[in-house]
Amino acid sequence: MQRVLVVDDDEDIRDIIAFRLRKQSYEVSSVGDPRAALELAPTMTFDAAILDWSMPWMDGGELCARLRELPGLREVPILVVTAHADEATRERAFAAGATRFITKPLSLKELVDVLAELLAPEPSSQS
User: Fold this and answer.
1) Does the model's pTM come out above 0.90?
2) Which of 8, 12, 28, 59 could be 18's S-S partner, Cβ–Cβ 3.0 to 4.6 Å?
3) 79, 118 Cβ separation under 8 angstroms
4) Could you tell me what percent of the chain has a pLDDT over 90?
5) How far is CA 75 from CA 4, 11, 120, in A?
6) Distance CA 96, CA 92 (A)
7) Averaged pLDDT of the chain
């Protein structure tokens, strides 16, 4: 079972995302505080992370960059979700290490589809 870290300070959104991912057979760890995510991340193995952009204490860009510094999260897909659809936010997210960027309001189907795409095994090359 693939494990996903969900970080969003909005409890309702966090719970809805976690519920939907669990229905898709993902194991989900969710936190509402980016500082708690930084404490949790080194203690567990994650296959992907979903980060909100606008949170107290640090935004999703700073959290993404700090997660990328951890050995276990350097290569995992990180999906940023945000209501900020401007190009500057998108550029900051990718500069911080985000793999994908989805704007809110988000479709849970789109979120699940993007996550599945990011976690799909790469096809092996035949020689």
Assistant:
1) yes
2) 28
3) yes
4) 85
5) 14, 27, 14
6) 6
7) 93
